[in-house]
Every structure is written in structure tokens, then in C-alpha cells.
Amino acid sequence: METFLSVSAKLAQGFGTTLALFFLTLLFAIPLGLLFACLARARFKPVRWLMRAFIYIIRGTPLLLQLMIVVYLPGIVFDHPLTKWEIFHQSTDLAYFCGALFAFVINYACYFSEIFRGGIENIPKGQYEACEVLGMSKSQAFFKVILLQVIRNIIAPMSNEVVTLVKDTALARTVSVVEIYFAASEILRLQFIIWPLFYTGAFYLAFSALVTLFFGIVEKKLSRYWR
Amino acid sequence: MALLEVRELKKNFGETEVLKGISFDLNANEVLSIIGSSGSGKTTLLRCLNFLEHADHGCISVDGKRIYDAADPATRAPKAIHKNRTNFGLVFQSFNLFPQYSVLENLTLAAMLKAKESGEGKINKKELKEKLEQQGMELLTRIGLADKKDAYPCMLSGGQQQRVAIARALMLTPRILCFDEPTSALDPELTKEVLHVIKDLRAAGNTMIVVTHEMEFAKNASDKVIFMSKGVIEESGTPEELFGSPKSPVLRSFLMQ
Ligand SMILES: Nc1ncnc2c1ncn2[C@@H]1O[C@H](COP(=O)(O)OP(=O)(O)O)[C@@H](O)[C@H]1O
Ligand SMILES: [Mg+2]
After folding, report:
1. Is the CB of B42 within 6 Å of ligand 1?
2. Among partner residues B50, B98, B154, which is closest to A133 by beta-carbon distance?
3. What is the mean pLDDT of chain A?
4. Domain map (residue ranges) of chain A
5. pLDDT at A74
6. Which domain holds residue B107?
7. How high is the pLDDT of residue A77?
8. What ipTM describes this predicted complex?
9. What is the per-residue pLDDT across A127-154, written as a single tens digit (0 to 9) for each?
């Protein structure tokens, strides 16, 4: 008979994987999203249009599909399966995890880049001009005046997107990444016990609540002052 | 010699010629009002003086020194522009205060950065900050907003925001302070308090260029008036001349409105 503790132990590894996928995705997707946002605003038109087309494609197709492509394309089309790549040292788990992470990072970088771009483009022109006539350099203007306003602009959409990421991590199971949902569904499949699934649900709920709380605090800190 | 000499300033946006050769002089301690219907190029002229736009033709001299000459690439280089823009200050129609900074911080920010850039900040950061804050407080006292030093822009009325914006521009002690319709975003009561501050500055001997739709202000509070129409100076002179006996038919019909 499974107890709360024994289930917890079984889910623990999946729990760790979910957290790792979540934080590593944020860690890489945020800077990459910034880069994408810059490229999508590049003066050189071909770069701008290529970037925007790429973002459009990624945002317009299911993450599920992207996961499948990233993980299975190398093996099926190029006869060089992910699991055989040297860098993964024959660890199938690591290979699938990294493949999934790659897809998550690309996908979320595209969503973030659109948020960043919106946040930057929403800054009134007058703010830049005020900085300019006050003799600030471009970088002074950006870091001292513009950046905090951009951050404020993007808090709400970022909060939504990051909560979505919490739940999207469950998709990684489709490419054999044993995250928490996968672990719980295995218990269901093998032992016919359903409550671990609710346990998992509670986990996602708590996780989302924490994320929302975090962004709420940041937003409150910033809007103490303006608008 | 005039403090400011503007010669043959021209500016195009693509095909449209917005300024078609603007020339005028302004003496130190004088106030110039620029009037004219919307679209006549008034804002563009101020933006050229403040280097937010680069004129395509013509030159600008301050104190006899040519600080901008469209034909001289050296004066158009970013470095030269950066150095020379301290001659001018600009107050915008829409205030453009920095929302995340308090009133006093809005005043000191640019001055602080400038001092740091020139190496002054390294010497004694704390002393510098105190000095600038004291300067800021003096200006706030002058515009009657000393008690708002810790307020944020969103907590102020439009009139108060515009007065802070004026103080912010004054912090950098520009030779010539420009205003682009400083009151047209304000209702009459608030307009009065802003114009009052500008008149005070005039009494204190500031050299200013004010683009305005407030004919009363132009008439009573300026030494010189320019009427612009379709990118040219249609008529200029003392307020008495322009408002008392306007010569050009365009100005006459403009004043009739
Ligand atoms: N950045 C710009 N690009 C294209 N046209 C412009 C730009 N700025 C101003 N204009 C045009 O120049 C003309 C004069 O504008 P402006 O200087 O703002 O006039 P005013 O301030 O007297 O109302 C207008 O017809 C306006 O449409
Ligand atoms: Mg205008």
C-alpha cells in the first residue's frame, strides 16, 4: 500500500526535474528573449524580418510539436539520435532532458521577446527625448531612466507567461522526461491509485501561486511610485 | 552682439520642407515668443535648436561661436552636439518627467550623471550629491514646490509637473531655455501658474524662447515676437508692432481667430 510518504519519495525525482526544467528555462530564455527582441527591432531589415518570422512560427505552433521535433528529428532524419550524442555520456535521461530544455528555451525566448519588445516600444518617445536634451548619453538614458519603466511594463505579461511555463513543464513527459506529472501517472498506471495525481495538481497550484506572489510583490514595489 | 544667432535654418522630412530658411537674433536676457498656426514648424525649430533634429542647412551661433553649421561635419559630430547642447534647455508640452524618480531626483539626476562623466563625482560623491540637492531645493523653492520634493510625478497636477520640468531644465543652467507650448496640455487655472513661473524667470533675466498659443502672454511677457507660417518667419518685431499693427494678411487673419 502506498502512503503519503512513499508517494512523496516516488515523486521527489520528478519534482526535482520539474523545478530544474522550470528554472533552467527561465535562466536561458530570458537573456535569449532579450537578444531576440533586439534582433526583431534591428535596423537591418533582413535580420528583423527573419527574426520576426522565426518568432511567428514558434508562437504559432504547439510546444508539443516542437518538443517532438527537437528530440526525434536528429535520430529519424539525420540518423544521429540525441541519446547517442557524446556530450550526454550515454545517459538517455540527460539527453531527453536537454532536448526538452532546448525546445522550452527556444519557445519561451520567443514569447518573452515579444513581451520585451512590447515593453520597450511602449515607452513614450518623450522619455528618450527628455534624457537627450538633459545631456544624458544613450546608455545613461537606458539604464537610469528607461530600463525600470520597461521592467514595470513587462511585469504583468511576464507573470502570466511564467505561470504558463509552470504548467507547460508537464509537456516534457511526452519526450520521456520523468517530471512530476509523469511520475504520478506511472503510479496510476501500475498501481491504479489516483490520488497522487491530485497531489501533483496541488504542487502545480502552489508553484503557480508562488510565482504570482513573487511578481505581485515586484509589481507592488514598482507601482508604489507611479501610475 | 546677440546671444543667439540663427541663420537660414532649413529642415526637410523626406519630401516636405518644414523649415524653409529661418533667421533671427535673440539678445541675452530677452524673451522671444513664437506664434503661428499648428503645422507651421515651431516645434521643429525648437527641436533643431536643441539638436533633437539636425537642420539640413544653416547655422546656429551662441555668443558669436558657431555651435552648429549644417555644412560643417565637425559641428554635427555626436561629440560636438553633446558638448554644445548644454547651451539650450527644452521644456516639453507633455512635461516628460521621469515617473520612477521623486521630484528632487528628477532635478538632480542629469546633473549628477554629467558631473560623474566629467570625473567630478569620483572626487566626493556625497558632497556632490548634497550640493546638487541644495541647488535643486533652491529651484523648487523658487517655483513654490519645495514641499513636494519627495513626491512622485504622478502625484502632482499638470501645472505642478510642468513647473518641475522647468526646474529640471534650469538645473543644467542653459544659456537659452526653450518652451514648446508649455501650457497647451493644461486647463486655464494651471496655465496661469506655469506662465507665472515663466514670467518670474524673465524678471530674473533668463533668456528664453517660448512657443505659445497664449496671445496675452506673447503680448505682455515677451520682448520680441516671431510669427511663423508654413516654415518661414512671416513677420517679426516687438509685441506692440505685431499685435498693434500687423502687416501681413496671414498674421492679421491669424490674430482675428
Ligand atoms: N518627424 C517628422 N516626420 C515627418 N514630418 C514631420 C515630423 N515632424 C514634424 N513634421 C511635419 O512638419 C510640419 C511642422 O510640424 P511642427 O514643427 O510640429 O509644427 P508646429 O509645432 O508649428 O505645429 C508638420 O506638417 C508636421 O507634420
Ligand atoms: Mg508644435
Report:
1. yes
2. B50
3. 91
4. 4-223
5. 86
6. 4-255
7. 84
8. 0.93
9. 999 999 999 999 999 999 999 999 999 9
Quickly name the fold that domain A4-223 has: MetI-like fold (1.10.3720)
- Centre of ligand 2 to C-alpha A125, Å, is 15
Phi/psi at A147 (nearest 5 deg)? Answer: -55, -50
Torsion sign, CA atoms A81, A87, A89, A95: negative
What's B84's domain CATH number?
A: 3.40.50.300
Residues of B in contact with A127 (CB under 8 A): 96, 98
Domain count, chain B: 1
**pLDDT given at position B121:** 54
A 145-174 near B (Cβ less than 8 A): 145, 148-149, 152
Indicate the top mutation candidate among B12, B15, B18, B37 to test ligand 1's pocket, ranked by most ligand atoms within 8 A of CB: B18
**CA–CA distance, A86 with B94 (Å, rounded to integer):** 60
